[in-house]
Amino acid sequence: MTGRMTTTTGTNTYNVTAKRWKHGWELHIDGVGVTQSRTLDTAEQMVRDYIETLTDKDVSDEKVVITPDLGELDRKVTTVRELLAAADRQQQEARNSYRALAADLRAAGLSVSDTAAILGVSRGRVSQLSKVS
Predict the structure, then answer these.
(1) Positive or negative torsion for Cα 79, 87, 64, 19
(2) Which of 44, 69, 94 is the last residue of a domain?
(3) Helix, strand, or coil here: 47?
(4) pTM (2 decimals)?
(5) Of the residues 42, 69, 96, which one is the last residue of a structural domain?
C-alpha cells in the first residue's frame, strides 16, 4: 500500500505490520512511519499515540489493524484459528440440533421424563431446551 491509510465509509484504517525484535515489537505503520511497543497488547495504543504526535490529529475513532509478522509461524497461527472457528461452528450446530431434537421428541408426545431419559439429561434440562427458541 502506498497511501498512509485506507478509508472505508468515513473511517480511516491504519495497517500496521508488527515485527519482533530484541526489546519487543517494531510497528511499521503503512505510509506513516515506525514506532515500537514492548508487547502486542499495547501496540494499538502506541500506534495511535505515534500518529497523533505526528499529525496533531485525534485518531481514537480510527481503525488500527495490527498484523504480526511471525515468519513460518504465520501459517500455523492461521491454521489453528481456522480449526477453532470450524469447531465453534460445529459446536453451535450441535447445540441447535440438540434443541431441535428435544423439541421434536416433545412434539411427538413424549413426556419430559421420557425425553430426559432419551437425551441423557435431567428433566430440568429438557425444560431449558424447550424454552430456547
Answers:
(1) negative
(2) 69
(3) helix
(4) 0.61
(5) 69
- CA 87 – CA 74 distance, rounded (Å): 20
DSSP H helix total and E strand total for the chain: 4, 5
Q: Do 63 and 81 belong together in one domain?
A: no
CA 126 to CA 129: how far, in whole Å? 5
If we measure between CA atoms, which residue out of 41, 40, 45, 44 comes closest to residue 20? Answer: 40
CB atoms within 10 A of CB 92: 10
What are the backbone dihedrals phi and psi of residue 72, each rounded to the nearest 5 degrees, phi first? Answer: -65, -20
Regarding whether 39 and 17 lie in a shared domain, the answer is yes
Shared domain check, 87 and 59? no
Cβ-based neighbours of 33, under 8 Å, separated by 6 or more: 50, 54
For residue range 47-102, list pLDDT tens digits in order. Answer: 999 999 999 999 999 999 999 999 999 999 999 999 999 999 999 999 999 999 99
Distance between CA atoms of 43 and 16, rounded to whole angstroms?
A: 9
What is the domain count for the chain? Answer: 2
